[in-house]
Specification:
Layout (H helix, E strand, L loop, with lengths): L1 E7 L3 H12 L4 E5 L6 H6 L1 H19 L15 H25 L3 E4 L1 E6 L2 E5 L5 E11 L3 E3 L12 E2 L1 H4 L8 E5 L3 H12 L3 E6 L10 H13 L3 E4 L2 E8 L2 E7 L5 E6 L1 E4 L3 E3 L33 E3 L10 H15 L13 E3 L4 E6 L2 H7 L3 E7 L4 H6 L5 E7 L5 E8 L2 H13 L4 H6 L9 H10 L8
Helix pairs in contact: 1-8, 3-4, 3-6
Length: 467
């Protein structure tokens, strides 16, 4: 069977690439090795984790803030089985939606493991047995990533777990030991902390969410500490053992002292690794980079083999679903002869804890390293009337602007609904707005987004009104 484009992998990058190719009139096929579309994001990542985050936040509010709001409730209990059931229903609805979109766009779908026979031929080993081959002028690799394992600490899927198993626990842990203070770990850690678990975070670096602006990490740690989470920063995990229902984790402190932690679950969340095995890349002469995992591409996201592209987690850059989506669209339009673009500096990063964390552009640390001259404006949510009304006063908005031109260089937020608020900053920076531009735009009152306006005013000659 001959196609214009074959996409390997149906995560956010893959299915978006396939749909855009079909929209552009290209005969398209997509291959997925699992029984459902959507990849990690829809099945065991973004979507299910947000479902649990929302459910746990409802419970936390019922037990901690309802009384102050004048809502009296009695005997609030966690029904973890129902919580997981609802999460699974959300996943089923979302992945089912992708199946519908494949049919709507007349994209041929294949279930099985796709690998290169040659640069135009893909062999599909069906999960139901048997093999078949399809060919195309262009092939897009969108195989995503999987949780990274520590070589000295193997997961067993029962007591030493990854994010995948953490989404399906049948009980609230008594003590969850969380290895890794990044996005995935903190989101899942906060879920179980809200539900009553003791959560201890062990992080090798000196701050949580270390790739984001340092201000955000400090503020988030304050908020999560209020939730009861404990943090061991600059600590190195050396091993873990399981005996019955008990997990013992050994850790080295910054001073070289041995620390022993005991819990009933240990969640290993130290990042993700590109999924590039089994593709048969050696058959077409593609050599992997970055410790033998990432596929190298040029500015058009094309590999060293003409007509073969790679997108998403399997190439360099942030491992974000929306980055993969943009790259999927980019490659589809490139194949169709268009000239799309992606500004990688303006792809936002988000942590869906509560308060939420969101960031776009340069961090203050990056500007200092570059030697850039910049100015800073901040505004705390405790000074926001809307935040006081909803009892969401933790956090702040921070705007970094060029000292001479006033162009916004970075926006960093921690607070209520920042995952949505960051979009205004992305739009502004895409059009190279100044801090004064944002300060002069009318923001509805009372809203959380006024904090962005105030931070921009603070960066413009310290003109913030409400602080």
């Amino acid at each position: 069977m001959q196609y214009d484009v074959i996409v390997i992998g149906s995560g956010p990058g893959g299915y978006v690439a396939a749909i855009r190719c079909a929209q552009l009139g290209l005969k398209t096929a997509i291959i997925e090795k699992y029984t459902t579309f959507g990849g990690t994001c829809l099945n065991v990542g973004c979507i299910p984790s947000k479902a649990l985050l929302d459910s746990s936040e409802h419970y936390h509010n019922a037990t901690h803030t309802f009384t102050e709001h004048g809502i009296d409730v009695k005997e609030v209990k966690v029904n973890i089985k129902q919580m997981i059931k609802r999460k699974n229903e959300v996943v089923d609805q979302t992945t089912g939606g992708i199946t519908f979109l494949m049919k709507k766009n007349k994209i041929d779908t294949f279930e099985g493991l796709g690998s290169f026979k040659d640069k135009n031929t893909i062999k599909i080993a069906s999960t139901k047995g048997g093999e078949q081959e399809i060919t195309a002028k262009n092939i897009i690799i969108a195989t995503g990533s999987k949780p990274t394992e520590l070589p000295f600490l193997k997961t067993d899927g029962k007591r030493i777990i990854t994010s995948t198993e953490a989404l399906n626990l049948t009980e609230v842990p008594k003590h969850l030991i969380l290895i890794g203070g990044g996005v995935i770990g903190l989101e899942l850690g906060s879920v179980y902390a809200r539900l009553g678990a003791e959560v201890t975070v062990v992080e090798f670096m000196d701050a949580i969410i270390p790739t984001m602006d340092k201000t955000l990490g400090k503020e988030l740690q304050k908020s999560l500490t209020k939730l009861g989470m404990k943090f061991l920063l600059s600590h190195k995990v050396t091993g873990a053992t399981v005996k019955g229902k008990k997990v013992t984790v050994t850790v080295d402190s910054p001073k070289g002292e041995k620390v022993v932690l005991e819990g009933d679950y240990c969640l290993v969340a130290v990042g993700r690794t590109a999924y590039s095995e089994g593709l048969g890349l050696e058959n077409i002469g593609i050599t992997l980079e970055e410790r033998g995992k990432k596929i190298p591409v040029n500015e058009h996201l094309e590999t060293s083999v003409k007509g073969i592209y790679a997108i998403g987690d399997v190439i360099k850059g942030a491992m974000l679903a929306h980055k993969a989506e943009e790259e999927g669209t980019f490659v589809a339009e490139t194949i169709a002869g268009q000239k799309p673009h992606i500004n990688y500096n303006l792809i936002p990063g988000v942590v869906y804890t509560w308060p939420e964390v969101a960031s776009v552009g340069y961090t203050e640390e990056q500007l200092k390293e570059k030697g850039s001259k910049y100015k800073t404006g901040t505004f705390p949510f405790k000074a926001s009337g809307r935040a006081r009304a909803s009892m969401d006063t933790d956090g702040l908005v921070k705007v970094l602007a060029d000292a001479e031109t006033d162009e916004i260089l970075g926006v960093h937020m921690i607070g209520p609904r920042c995952a949505d608020m960051i979009a205004e900053a992305v739009v502004a920076m895409e059009f190279r707005a100044s801090a004064e531009d944002i300060g002069r735009i009318s923001h509805a009152h009372p809203t959380f987004t006024e904090a962005f306006k105030e931070a921009a005013l603070a960066a413009t000659d310290n003109r913030a009104i409400h602080i």
